Amino acid sequence: MYELVEYLLRGALLGITYGLLAFPVSLLFSTTGSVDVALGAYAVLAVAVAYSIGGPVGILAAILATVFASFVVGIISLRLNRPGAVDHVTAVLGTFGLAMFLESLILSVFGTNPMIRQPFDTFWNIGGIRISPQTGINAAVCLVILTALFVVLRKTPFGRSMRASAANPVGASLNGIPVRQIWFATYLLGGLLAGVAGVLILYTTGADYSSAFTLTIWGFGSAIIFGMNSPLRGFAGGLIIGMVQALCSGYLPGAWATAIPLVVIFVVLSMGRMNQIVSTGGRV
Amino acid sequence: MNMQLGSAPGASVLSCKGLSARYHRVTVVSGVDLSLRAGEMLAVLGSNGAGKSSMLQAIAGVVRGGGEINVNGRSLGGMSAHKRALHGLSLVPEQRRNIFPTMTVRENIDIGLALLPASEREAQRAFIIDLFPILQTRETAMAGMLSGGEQQMLAIGLALGRKPAVLALDEPSQGLAPAVFDILAAAFDRLKKGGLALLLAEQNVPFAARIVDRYVVLSHGHIVRSGDRADLDDPQRIAEAFLGTGRG
C-alpha cells in the first residue's frame, strides 16, 4: 500500500509537466479545432536553451525561444485559416514540419547528449517518501499557472472572447471579436506553456533532441483522457498519464512500462472520447 | 439585371453599389445596388438559392465579395467581419448562428455588449431585456437549451448589444411558431421607430409584408424587382414578388 501511494505521488508529480503540455493541446483544439504537433519540440527547445545558457536568464531565453517558435506557427495558421474557412490538415502538417526542423536544429547545435540540471542534492521526506524539492517547485509553478489561466479564461473579456471563438468562430466574428488574432494568441499561449514545461523538464527528468515527439504524444494523450475541449481537464489527464507511467515503471518490466501508457491512450482514442466531447467547446 | 432602387429621402445609413458575393471562384450574387435609411426596413425576397443569405453575409464580411458597402458614409469594403461589426453593421444569420450555444444567455448578451463603452452597457442591456423579457427569465440557461423562438430573440438581442446602425436579419421567422412572429414583428417595429435600419432576407412573404417598408426580389443573384410594402398586401403581387415575375 505504501509503495502504491509512493508511485501515485511520484506519477502525479511527473504528470504535472504532461499536464502543462496537455493544457495548450486542449486549448488550441477547443479554440481553433487544430493541433500543434510541435508542442513537444518547443519544450525540448526550451530544455536546450535553458541548459546551454543556464540560470534565470536561460529560463527567460528558453521561454522567449518557444514563444518565438509558436509565433511562427501562429503566422502560418493566420495565413491558412479564417472563420468559416479553415485548413487544419495543412496547418497540422506545418507544425509537424516545424517540429522536425527544431529537432534537427537541436541535434545540430546541442548534439545527442541528454540535457538535465539537478540543482538540489537534498530530498524532502514526506511520510517516508523521498521527494526532490524541484518537484515541489514544479507543483507550485503549475498551480500558479493554472490559477492564472482559469481566471483569464473565466473572468476576463479576453477569456470570454477566447471561449466564444472556440464555441462559434463565425458568430464571434459577427460580434466584433477578432477571431484570427485570438487564434494567434492561443498559439503563443501554447508556446509559453510548452516553454515552462520544458524548463521544468530540464530540472526534473531532462531530455535530449529526440524527446520532442514523445512529449507531444504524452501531452496529446493527456489531453484526450478527459476531453480535448477542456484545458483544465486536459491537465488532469496529464496527472493520470503520469500516474499510469509511474505504476507501470514500478510494477511492470521495462518495455511494458513505456508501452502500457501508450495502450491506455490508444484505448481512450478507440473509445471515441475525442468525438464525445466536441459539443462541450468553449468550456474550461 | 441590375435595378437601381429609388433614392430614399433622408440620409442613407447603408448603401451598397455593385455588391457581389462569391464562394471561391463561383459568383453567386453580383451587381446589387441598394440603400437603406434610418428607421426603414427593406426586405430581400426570393426563393431558395436566390442568393439572399450570401448577399447578407457578403455585406457582413463573412462571405467574400466585392463592390462598395458604406455604413453611415464609411466604406466597409475590404474590412473583415469583426471590423464591420465595430462600424455599425450587425448580422443575425440564418438559424441564429451568431449565438454561443455552450454559454449562458447572460454571457451571450455580455458578448454583444462588449463593444459598447462600459457606461452604456447596462442601459442597452435593459433595452434588450425590455424588448425580449423572456431573456431575463432564461438568463442563466445555456443558449443551446433555449427554444427556437427564444434563441431567435437572443440572437437579435446579441446583435443589438453594440447599438448597430444597420441590423441585417437572415430569415428570422424560419422554423418558428406563429406566436413568435408577433413578438418579432413588434420588436422590429419598435427598432424602426428607434431609428435602426433593418435589412431582412425572408422567404416568408406574408411575415415580411407585415413589417417592411420596401422590398427587393433577388433571383439568381440579381435584383429583378423592387417596390413598396403596398405591393405585398395583394396576394397576386405577393406571388409575383416571390417569383420575381410581373411588373418591375
From TrEMBL, chain A:
Keywords of the record: Amino-acid transport, Cell membrane, Membrane, Transmembrane, Transmembrane helix, Transport
Keyword flag Membrane: yes
Key word RNA-binding present: no
TM helices/strands, residue ranges: 12-30, 59-78, 90-111, 131-153, 182-203, 209-228, 258-275
Topology class, membrane: Multi-pass membrane protein
Example of a GO cellular component annotation carried by this entry: plasma membrane
CDD domains (UniProt xref): TM_PBP1_LivH_like
Name the record gives this protein: Branched-chain amino acid ABC transporter permease
GO biological process: amino acid transport
Highest taxon above the source species: Bacteria
MF GO annotations: transmembrane transporter activity
Family stated for the protein in its record: Belongs to the binding-protein-dependent transport system permease family. LivHM subfamily.
Main localization (coarse): membrane
Subcellular location: Cell membrane
